[in-house]
Amino acid sequence: MKSIIHRAEDRGFTQIGWLNSAHSFSFGGFYNPEKMGFGALRVLNDDIVSPGAGFAKHPHDNMEIVSIPLSGDLEHNDSTGTQGIIKSGDVQIMTAGFGIRHSEKNANADKEVAFLQIWVFPNSRDLNPAYDQKSFDLERDKNNWVTVVDPNGKDGVKINQQSWFSMAVTEANQLMKIKTNKENNGLYLFVIEGSFKLAENVLKKRDAIGIWDLNGEVLQLRTNEPSQLLLIEVPMA
Q: What is the pTM of this model?
């Protein structure tokens, strides 16, 4: 088994007035040749957008783009005609495919919106653009992993990759098992809130650990306090 730890304070940061964004991997004006992604995972941005502000319509192609609101309401519009608002508990995916334009805006004039935007390389190029969105009750399934993204769209939103995202809200001192759904995939575990210990490693809020070459091994972490976790599984090649 191999692993790498990315500490919250070592991320790249963008501040442009209406946007505060932290980048786990190279993005925009932040470039680190050692942080170009983790397997098929290319971007993990931790964004806070001021009231009423947002990203004007802009293009994407050949990327699976997952948005996970943490607080507030995020308004989405794209060139397929899809429009709507996503909030905490929702997970949205947009298949950029051969080309799509979209905008994202804070739907509220009186409070910030915070969300994670995650990019994963698809398993095929130039797919038809598509959109999916589902809601999840992590509190109802407390202390358990909840699948929010999967390749078949059976439990979560459908992604065009052998990739699974799982989320969990846990109590303190909770033992959580982690393993891959597919052999040779890697795991990227991001701490949204709280902290946990995995082997001898302690990870805190917005820290992350990437793990690969597991060879079927089942890992166990224990939370130190009430926590919210995001587990991203992706092909490593």
A: 0.97
- The phi and psi torsions of 173 (rounded to 5 degrees) equal 60, 35
Torsion 216-171-44-206 (CA) sign: negative
Q: Tell me how far apart the alpha carbons of residues 1 and 220 are, in angstroms, rounded to a whole number.
A: 14
Distance CA 149, CA 201 (A): 27
115-169 tens-digit pLDDT: 999 999 999 999 999 999 999 999 999 999 999 999 999 999 999 999 999 999 9
Distance CA 145, CA 136 (A): 11
pLDDT given for residue 155 in this prediction: 97
The full DSSP string for 78-91 is: ETTS-EEEEETTEE
Which helix or strand (DSSP H or E) is residue 74 part of?
Answer: strand 73-78
CA 200 to centroid of chain Cα atoms: 25
Q: What single DSSP character describes residue 179?
A: -
Q: How would residue 44 be classed by pLDDT, with cut points 50, 70 and 90?
A: very high
Q: How far apart are CA 109 and CA 111, in angstroms?
A: 6
* Structural domains of the chain in order of their starting residue, each with its CATH number: 12-135 (2.60.120.10), 146-235 (2.60.120.10)
Contact 177, 222 (CB under 8 A): no
Q: How many residues does the chain have?
A: 237
